[in-house]
Amino acid sequence: xxxxxxxxxxxxxxTANLSASSSTLAYDREFLRTLPGLLMVTExxxxxxxxxxxxxxxxxLYPAFGWxxxxxxxxxxxxVFFLIIYMTMTYTRIPQVPxxxxxxxxxxxxxxxxxxxxxxDASSVTKEPDSHNYNSxxxxxxxxxxxTSCYAGxxxxxxxxxxxxxxx
Length: 168
Known about the structure:
The protein is an all-alpha fold.
């Protein structure tokens, strides 16, 4: 005997909100025209240079360069992540997160750890018979200090933003 197949579908408010919110994902092109946006792009480009210059050498023989690699790669990935959050304006969709405080902590920690890594990088550069390592390490040291100054600038702007939010 034939059976009747009845299919019932229901829609929850969660799926309705999810589909509505994902279709209206914003794109903030103007962020890249601000000084913090330009600094962030510079951090990404020069941070990539720092860790690729070290990665092309025998850095694993020197523990100090392992620390520099960790800091450079870790903050490069997080900076790309934050750029995506700012470019897509995701921070407006998650108001529970204190974004000004998160930005201040991120940029402040990046500044301090990158400064330590840049100093370690510069002090570990030694002249060796293999000039490839020397040149790469010296260049990575220079760019690490430039990236450190970019994070210092973004720390300043994050502090100004955080301070104006806490005074309101």
